Amino acid sequence: MFGNKSTIGVFTVAALFATSGAIAGGQMGQTRAQSGMLPYLEVADANKDNSITEAEFSRYLQSRFKELDTNSDGSVAKVELKEEVKGADGADQTAATFLALNDLNRDNKLTYDEYVKDPMSEFALADSNGDRKVSMEEAKPNKR
């Protein structure tokens, strides 16, 4: 539905940095500013109309969370994140950083609510006209 596993895996590495809380002056904030919501257009635009509705984005995030939660316990642990980004340079550090930035209650795992917090905030920021849809123009970096 959202592309093949290798495409999604590569996107996940980028998304781990692009959608995980900004660190002032750091690489993660710069990466997000450089990519905007454009990476999501390819994978979350289910009807291929060059925009992402809030519903499409939510369905995409739900699907990705289920894929990441390989043991189906309702949360994603570091080992599950590492499996998703294995083979990438610094996979262990990528998983650890993503977990550290998003594990709000510090229990060493991500709940669905923790997983979607930053991406949904990014969606809201990108939706500059408030129509609950991010157009191609709104998705471009630094358009907010």
From TrEMBL:
Pfam families: EF-hand_5 (PF13202). InterPro entries: EF-hand-dom_pair, EF_Hand_1_Ca_BS, EF_hand_dom. Coiled coil: none annotated. This is EF-hand domain-containing protein. Keywords: Signal. It comes from the Bacteria. Residues 1-24 form the signal peptide. It comes from Gimibacter soli. GO terms for molecular function: calcium ion binding. Residues 42-59, 62-82 form the EF-hand domain.
